[in-house]
């Protein structure tokens, strides 16, 4: 009521977050079509690690309302539903910005945060100075959006927005994870497997009795660790097929989409849009800070159908039957060449669901008849964030007599690469179109990042 009164009587522009059923469809589709974050999207918004993110806001503009020059850190699409707006744009000098530059809601904290982020790549960047050659280049260009028009403007572009005729517009803001975040998460996972890297940092106060005793200082310990870091990176990049470890096939195939709001009832359905954040800073009434925006965004995980760890095992719909796995279109688990061999992903771990559920009793099971002995939990790349949230988490079920998943679990517990326990015949069956059960199981493990091919 207050917003309506301010809009109708005082001439204030108004904006609001779009309803989930609109936002989820638009963001999911746009991420898939643009490839941002490899199309990964979690409509629940509960994931702390994100390959792709987005949000949609609705703006109701009043005649003459203007938002001054600023930049955003998202890829933005605006749809003019009614009325008209004049957009004036100039190319910015900060590529792939980590923060926007938003003078219209400047505060000391905002200015400092945005300046230091911009100066990572452009040390001469100045706040609120779009006209400077250090901040932008090229001529200013203007365009008037009329009803039905759509405008795309990339992250980092300076723009000013003026409402010519009152109307409604929709803004879609998209973001994808950058390579630095992706790699650092995986690298942290590998480092934390080593005792020396997990050691707590304990310094010695200057002048204390222990300071005189000969023991490595924190800087000496750190230097030793850093000296070994190139070998870790080199091993990940070559011997451990780093790119395939970090981005298994499942993360390169957008997940199937369905609405994730329980209140939608029958509208919660599958769409044909199958398979490390920002709010909208792009229009004329957005006065949120970057940090507020980060906290509001949805985030991306493996798939909207993936169970979260809190769910444990809440539905058979969340379980993949490995013996029935079908290769997604455009992907094959076939051995790339004769000089490639199968290896376990160093970022992956497999465990039995029964080992987890037994500690919870039966209160977390959907019924007393649950049989967890055939269900396994696969987690990939989870130690690179504070919450230990997995980049990939899937439940797998094997009901046949082959026992491949159990063999993998037992091998891990013995410190053996599970690929060494698989027969050459089984390994060679990967990617074959013979519909054999063993081939389907191996393809499932390859697709979801437990195994990968490396070049000898």
Task: Using brief descriptors, characterize the structure shown.
456 residues, Jelly Rolls, 5-stranded antiparallel sheet, 4-stranded antiparallel sheet, 13 helices, 15 strands, 26% helix, globular
Overview in brief:
With 456 residues, this protein is of the alpha+beta class. The chain contains 13 helices and 15 strands. It folds into 3 domains: 2-178 and 258-296, Jelly Rolls (Sandwich), CATH 2.60.120.10; 180-237, no CATH class; 306-455, no CATH class.
Q: What is the share of helical residues?
A: 25-40%
Largest beta-sheet details? 5 strands, antiparallel
Low-confidence stretches: 262-307
Find the CATH topology of the largest domain. Answer: Jelly Rolls
What name goes with the CATH superfamily of the largest domain?
Jelly Rolls
Would you count the extended β strands for me? Answer: 15
Total tally of structural domains:
3
- Give the second-level CATH assignment, the architecture of the largest domain: Sandwich
Structural class of the helix and strand makeup? Answer: alpha+beta
Q: Helical region count? A: 13
Sheet with most strands: strand arrangement: 1-2-9-4-7
Beta-strand proportion: 15-25%
CATH top level label of the largest domain:
Mainly Beta
Query: Termini, distance in Å?
Result: 68 Å
Region (Disordered): 244-313
InterPro entries: Cupin_8, JmjC_dom
Protein name: JmjC domain-containing protein
Biased composition (Acidic residues): 281-294
């Amino acid at each position: 009521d207050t917003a309506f009164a301010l809009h109708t009587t005082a001439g204030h522009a108004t904006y609001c977050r779009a309803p989930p059923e609109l936002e989820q469809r638009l963001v999911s589709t746009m991420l898939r079509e643009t490839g941002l974050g490899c199309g990964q999207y979690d409509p629940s918004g509960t994931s702390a690690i994100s390959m792709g993110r987005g949000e949609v806001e609705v703006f109701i503009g009043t005649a003459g309302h203007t938002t001054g020059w600023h930049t955003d850190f998202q890829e933005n699409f605006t749809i003019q539903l009614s009325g008209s707006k004049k957009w004036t744009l100039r190319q910015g000098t900060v590529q792939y910005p980590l923060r926007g530059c938003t003078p219209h809601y400047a505060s000391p904290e905002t200015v400092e945060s945005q300046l230091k982020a911009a100066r990572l790549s452009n040390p001469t960047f100045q706040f609120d100075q779009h006209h400077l050659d250090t901040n932008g280049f090229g001529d200013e260009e203007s365009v008037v959006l009329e009803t039905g028009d759509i405008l795309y403007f990339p992250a980092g572009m300076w723009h000013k927005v003026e409402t010519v005729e009152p109307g409604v517009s929709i803004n879609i803001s998209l973001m994808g994870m950058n390579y630095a975040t992706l790699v650092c998460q995986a690298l942290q996972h590998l480092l934390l497997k080593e005792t020396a890297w997990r050691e707590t940092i304990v310094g010695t106060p200057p002048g204390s009795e222990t300071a005189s005793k000969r023991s490595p200082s924190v800087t000496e310990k750190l230097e030793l660790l850093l000296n070994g870091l190139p070998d870790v990176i080199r091993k990940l990049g070559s011997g451990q097929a780093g790119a395939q470890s970090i981005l298994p096939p499942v993360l390169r195939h957008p997940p199937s989409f369905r609405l994730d709001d329980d209140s939608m009832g029958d509208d919660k359905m599958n769409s044909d849009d199958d398979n490390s954040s920002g709010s909208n800073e792009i229009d004329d009434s957005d006065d949120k800070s970057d940090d507020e925006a980060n906290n509001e965004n949805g985030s991306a995980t493996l798939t909207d159908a993936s169970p979260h760890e809190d769910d444990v095992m809440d539905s058979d719909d969340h379980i993949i039957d490995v013996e029935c796995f079908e290769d997604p279109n455009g992907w094959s688990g076939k051995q790339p060449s004769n000089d490639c061999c199968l290896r376990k992903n160093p970022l992956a771990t497999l465990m039995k669901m029964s080992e987890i559920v037994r500690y919870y009793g039966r209160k977390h099971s959907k019924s007393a008849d649950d049989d967890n002995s055939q269900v396994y939990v696969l987690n990939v790349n989870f130690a690179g964030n504070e919450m230990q949230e997995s980049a990939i988490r899937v439940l797998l079920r094997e009901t046949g007599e082959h026992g491949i998943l159990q063999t993998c679990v037992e091998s891990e517990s013995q410190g053996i690469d599970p690929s060494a326990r698989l027969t050459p015949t089984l390994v060679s069956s990967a990617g074959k179109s013979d519909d054999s059960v063993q081939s389907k199981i191996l393809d499932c493990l390859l697709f979801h990042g437990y195994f990968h091919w490396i070049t000898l």
